[in-house]
Structures are given as C-alpha cells and as structure tokens.
Amino acid sequence: MRIGIDLGGSKIEILALAPEGTALLRQRIATPQADYAATVDAICKLINELENTCQQRGSIGLGIPGSESPGTGLIKNANSTCLIGRPLRHDLQTRLGREIRLANDANCFALSEAIDGSGGDAATVFGVILGTGVGGGIVINRQVLVGAQAIAGEWGHNPLPLPDDYDLPLPECYCGRRGCIETYLSGPALSQDHLRHTGQFLPPEAIDTAANKGDSACEATLQRYEKRLGRALAGVINILDPEIIVLGGGLSKLQRLYRNLPKYCGQHVFSDNFCTSILPPTHGDSSGVRGAAWLWD
User: Please, are residues 171 and 183 in contact by the beta-carbon 8 Å criterion?
Assistant: First the structure.
C-alpha cells in the first residue's frame, strides 16, 4: 500500500493506493493555520488513522508547497510560511519511525499525470500549476527531476519573456523581484490584469463566462493571458522539449487554453513545427496526493 499526503495551505489530503493504483481510502481535513507543531500532529494522526482502518502499513510520500534544502534538510520557498526553516521530513520520520519521501506539490502533480494520467505515454512531461501561484514539475521516464538546488521546474519565478507594452510596468512579486511569470499568470494576476484594464474586478471563472457570452473586454483579458502563457511555455519547451505539458490548478479548467495555446506557443518555439501536446489533467485536483503516493514507484 502506498500512502500519499498533499499538504496544502487550506487542506491536508491523505490517500491510500493499492499496488496497481486503485484508491483505497481518502480523507481531507483543514490545515492548522500558521502552526507548525499542529500541522505535524495532524499529518501523523491522519496516517495512523488510515493505517488502522486499512489494517496495514504503507510507504509514505508527502507533497508540500515548497521544497527541502539539499544542504540543510530545512523547508524553503514555501507559501505556507510556518514550514519555512523547519526540518519537516526529519520530524515526521522521527514521530512515525520510518522513511518518508518528500517532494514539491507541483512535482507530485507532474508525477501523477506522468504515471497514469494525461502524460502516461510520454517520456518527458512538464506539469504546470496555474492557481493561486504558478509552479511546475518535470518528470523524465517516470522519475521526478529534482535538481541541484531542488528547484527544477520552478518556472514561475523566471521573468516573463518578451514583455509587450501591455505587460508594463513590471509587477512586483512577493519574492522581491519584478516581472515574474507568477505575477502575470496566477489566478489573482488574471483578475488584477482585468481590473487594471477595465476598472472592474472579476474572478477568472467570471471573466471566462463573460467572454463566452461575447464580452469584448473579458475576451481581450483572456487573449492577453494566453499570449503571455504561450511565451512563457515556449521558453520551457525550447529547453526541455517535452512531449506533453499537463496544466493543473484552477485556471486549467479554462477550456479555451487547450485550443489557443498551441498557436501562441508555436510562434516562439525554435522549430519549424509545434508538436508538444498541451492537455488537461486526468486526475484533476487529486493529482497532487496521487503523485505523493507514487514517490515510492
């Protein structure tokens, strides 16, 4: 039995998978807010309760909104700030008395989709998170690429390529830089862009609904978004050249992206043809917890 845990800012999800990938048991609870000790307690309690219910022990994989420093073993780059600087994997292993494999949540998403999801037939998969933030994960031959700094795939804090007049001035990012891809392509960034151009604040799903009904301002907002996303993904494709890109996060539900992105990507890809497939996720918002379980594949 494989156990996967997806530690998010608002919820903790646990999933038990049978050896062939069938879901045995799933549970979600609210994440303790800004409380590291309570978070560790909650994860341990979920694992113990699941194993008692299933009457067997399992391997444990954990996906987190950040990464573990290879040098110190401490968590870094986490938007759940109570994790930063903490030895999370060490603390859990000490409490549970066994090895735990830990990965960034975007890596877990990409791994899930590469093993038995939309990228299941591809050797190289780039998994993209387009949600509250922007992240990514790289899977090659069913193995997550971690990297020397444990930041492989973190394209959201690269600068947006080829900023146009409508992309200026470069927005400030919480990371201390300006013009990061995340400041243009996250869900909140899409709403802020629409507000800046129209004076009206709308959530992304409302912008999409209005554009589908013929609202020209909402259509223009989505076209700006698609052009930015196309340029940003083209930079990844020119380096990684994946067979498949799988989109995840809330904005992956915008069906127009799968129709329009090949055109906007292809304009900037260093090739005479564009053959990377851009697909929605097979497992939706369950991909993160499934990928955490598959860290033991």
Answer: yes
- Helices and strands per DSSP (H, E), number in the chain: 9, 12
Q: What is the CA radius of gyration of the chain?
A: 19
pLDDT of residue 123: 97
Q: Which residue has the tokens 């998010």?
A: 8
Contacts of 202-205 spanning 24+ positions with Cβ under 8 A: 204/250, 204/251, 204/254, 205/253
Integer Cα distance of 110 and 118 in angstroms? 10
Give the pLDDT band of residue 286 (cuts 50, 70, 90).
confident
| Share above pLDDT 90 across residues of the chain, in percent, rounded to a whole number | 90
Work out the number of other CB atoms within 10 angstroms of the CB of residue 250. Answer: 17
Cβ distance 253 to 206 under 8 Å? no
Instruction: State the first-to-last Cα distance of the chain, in angstroms, to the nearest integer.
Output: 11
Residues 6+ apart with CB under 8 A from 170: 159, 160, 163, 178, 179, 183
What average pLDDT does the segment 96-110 reach? Answer: 95
CA dist., res. 53 & res. 132, Å (int):
34
Q: 102: which strand partners? A: 62
Other CB atoms within 10 A of residue 9 CB: 14
Cα–Cα distance between 163 and 178 in angstroms, integer?
Answer: 12
26, 14 contact by CB (below 8 A): yes
Query: What string of DSSP letters covers 129-169?
Result: EESSSEEEEEEETTEE---TTS-TT-GGGSBPSS--GGGPS
pLDDT score of 175: 85
CA atoms within 13 A on the CB side of 139: 34
With bands split at pLDDT 50, 70 and 90, how would you rate the model's confidence at 8?
confident
CA distance 232 to 229: 5
pLDDT at 110 over 80: yes
